[in-house]
User: What shape does this take?
Amino acid sequence: MDEMEEELKCPVCGSFFREPIILPCSHNICLACARNILVQTPDAESPQSSRASGSDYDYLDLDKMSLYSEADSGYGSYGGFVSAPTTPCQKSPNGVRVFPPSVPHPPQAQHHLLPHTGVLPPVPRNSCLTCPQCHRSLTLDDRGLRGFPKNRVLEGVVDRYQQSKAAALKCQLCEKSPREATVMCEQCDVFYCDPCRLRCHPPRGPLAKHRLVPPAQGRISRRTSPRKISTCTEHELENLSMYCVQCKTPVCYQCLEDGKHSTHEVKALGAMWKLHKGQLSQALNVLSDRATEAKEFLVQLRNMVQHIQENGVEFEACLVAQCDALIEALNRRKAQLLSRVTKEHEHKLSVVRDQISHCTVKLRQTTGLMEYCLEVIKENDPSGFLQISDALIRRVHMTENQWGKGSLTPRMSSDFDLTLDSGPLLQTIHQLDFVQMKGESVFPAAPILQLEECCTQTNSATLSWKQPPLSTIAVDGYILELDDGNGGQFREVYVGTEMICTVDGLHFNSAYKSRVKAYNSSGVGQYSKTLVMQTSESKRCYLTYPILLLSFFLSFTPLHFLSSAFLCLFHFSLSLQHSLALSPSFFLLISVSPPSYGSNTLAAVAWFTFDPASAHPDIILSNDNLTVTCNSYDDRVVMGNTGFSRGVHYWEMTIDRYDNHPDPAFGIARADVMKDVMLGKDDKAWAITDGGISKGATVGVLLDFSRGILLFLINDEQQGPVAFNTLEGMYYPAISLNRNVQVTLHSGLPIPDFYTPGESEAAASVC
Assistant: This one.
């Protein structure tokens, strides 16, 4: 019974229920706690027709009520119940949010009875109560809390539970130091321990027919009073004897005579009591079977934990041994390579030192000759000078020729001509994985890319491949890999059995390398040829087959064939442009370097729409997925079908419908944002909420990854920048709204005139 304890505690005070009452939403609350969380509302917010009785509550229309949450305005709009004003919430001891009254009650009226009366003080007029569990709100009528029925069944269960937890009962027949009682005789009304039961209450003769029960059950049966007859909450002198099937509540004859339930189907209270008990018993039997299966499953899981621990230790030891062997082999190869580097180092030093020695000797000789010639020039004997001048001139020219071309050039470069090619090894290490070998290892062949079906559209890429025609090896699936569009490492983007895949959310104006490999039970096969795919720069959807063909030629065609390949591709491009009337900017995609944009050049733009695949099921899209609304009173999130991770982007949304002061939110979000709460309530999105917008208003969103700014505009008025320090990853345009709002998206817009991006930002794609 310990697992049942949480069911017996009040969601407000966290203690066991005391005088529990049943709210129309079927939740329970202590009578005193209900009074503590009452909120008094103005007279204007209290319709005369509002009722607090559970019999007036339409259980079939629960989903039509506005639920209280942090994302809506806090006002209900259905039936006779009016929501309480928004109040700060607190946490009750059991973790449920509790909404206290906006005006504190006087100290003597909060937790105490009226003096000399023994009853609770009267409920203030126009009081409102919010359920602490589902947060539905309703206004009380003149009867106040008496309009709610008391949950006598829950009160009895709480009483029995508390009694079962009380101190152990003692035997009533022990003479000295009574022992703990083990049974109770219902006929004798005596508690026995085992020795006294065998001595004073043997199971034979007339005593054999007595019923022995556990002490706790016996105490409950001893204290249980005769069942009270329930009275009607509206007619206190009438007993509840009938059951209204439509209202799902017990009623009295006076309720039938008043006409309130005259047209409803009613049945005898006892018959419905037995019927519902039977239904509950059947449901419990099914649930009991599920609980038994769950227990068996838990035993299985606990056994798996032990097996996993044992197998994990063994497997880790094997893995460590294999990796240590690889590290040892790498260390041996490292020693060999270091030996080669040492030899190269010593060779370079030897050559340079020999050149230093030779150059030093020559420089000494040259310096000596220069000093001798200077001394000769100082002599004043013309005949003696002319005798040796021709020889000195020849020696000077010969020495000068010795310092000629190449003599002052180092014979050895200081750079090492050894380049370690570690790329293949690093790639192999990255591909190192676990493969379960079954029988003979037969790896699948490398797939063949079908160039005629590969294309790009805006920032999406579609790739298609097939198996070699003569391959008979079974294939379980394929792995598609793309780099980051900037020459980085490859990463897996698709794993499955399909042979065509579309990758969305790529960068604009980027060249992505792609490759495919197949796998089966034996392992992973070789990669296909690498294909380079260029994403678009502008809003037009370009056919990219020529650039794919060019990339393929560049990768796998010898140099002496490139000139003819370029010529054929040029003629093909001209004919394709003439037949399809493509934009000339398409053919700039095959240039070696993309054109540069100036700071005043208008950047290319791209279209996008709302994405029905990732939207919440309550979202309603129309107008080619450009107009969005919702069929729920709660906030629901829808995102765009294009993601951004760099550059400058701008889009606008017009408010087509704006009723009952809703609270829409506009901004950006990650792909894993929560779809059933207001945008910005978690750490996956940033947004601006209702900031004075109305029907016909225009909300603009400007996202600048370079500066880390998310800027909002309402009717062309800037709402202030929000700076980010670590805005990384892929973000999508997003909006959250309910059924009171309808919004139309406008994309493909240039950035506003007041915003001037830098030179590096001007070339970025804008949406």
Q: What stands out?
A: The radius of gyration is 44 Å. Confidence is low (pLDDT under 50) at residues 44-89, 99-118, 539-604, 759-767. The CA atoms of residues 9 and 16 lie 4 Å apart.
